[in-house]
């Protein structure tokens, strides 16, 4: 059972999330969402990621998390993270580091000691947002030295507002301005090969870029076309050509 004060925080969060301006820019929307979670639940270190094709977008919106920490995570430690999308494997939508046993204890300990503790964090939690049964975004929560670790109660509190956050975020994506659909010449070339059914490694060869660069272009295209898979992207791109 929740105390009266916690119930009030839940009601406040519900009200603020439901009344967010869904027509603001993507960065402002995400930052405002993180600020609401800070004000109502005291989550002071958070990161709002977009997720596409099982990967995290490399330009997340951060709240009290340093840019160099995110860069360090992306370049060296993300696949050691038990809560990264690649390690989901039928895990719950809201995951706690302490109860996650997807990867080996050695990898988990390496991640905690080399990344979390090195950056003065002691714990991690993540909430995945879904669209058509696929993860479209993830909000990462971190605890610093001196703060308490995450508990099942944290997971339960987030579960009450998760669906609302999910719906408001999807509405926000839907009403984004049309100029976000503008694509570069390089993206057009990638789309041409994608429509022919080529794989990432083949596209990289034709464009003389790395496979990681192809993945980054795909993430940008997923965001611009508001899709979560290659098939959806090809279909929506084809529709835009017929329009």
Describe this structure in words.
By secondary structure, this protein is of the alpha+beta class. The protein has two domains: 4-174, GAF domain (Beta-Lactamase); 178-242, Winged helix-like DNA-binding domain superfamily/Winged helix DNA-binding domain (Arc Repressor Mutant, subunit A, Orthogonal Bundle). Helices cover 51% and strands 15% of the residues. Strands 1, 2, 3, 4, 5 and 6 form a six-stranded antiparallel β-sheet that branches. It starts with a helix and ends with a helix. The model has no long low-confidence stretch (mean pLDDT 88).
Would you summarize the structure shown here?
The chain contains nine helices and six strands, in the order ααβββαβαββααααα. The chain is an alpha+beta fold and 243 residues long.
List keywords for this structure.
single chain; 243 residues; alpha+beta; Beta-Lactamase; Arc Repressor Mutant, subunit A; 2 domains; six-stranded antiparallel beta sheet; 9 helices; 6 strands; 51% helix; globular
Helix/strand-derived class? alpha+beta
How would the global form be characterised?
Answer: globular
Instruction: Return Rg in Å.
Output: 19 Å
The largest pleated sheet is described as:
6 strands, antiparallel
Q: How many strand elements?
A: 6
How are helices and strands ordered from N to C?
Answer: HHEEEHEHEEHHHHH
- DSSP summary: helix tally: 9
Number of domains: 2
Provide the low-confidence segments as ranges: none
Mean pLDDT: 88
What's the CATH C level of the largest domain? Answer: Alpha Beta
Helix content: 40-55%
Corresponding CATH architecture of the largest domain: 2-Layer Sandwich
Fill in the CATH topology of the largest domain.
Beta-Lactamase
Q: Report the sheet-strand fraction.
A: 15-25%
What is the name of the CATH superfamily of the largest domain? Answer: GAF domain
Q: For the record, give the distance between the C-alpha atoms at the N and C termini, rounded to a whole number.
A: 54 Å
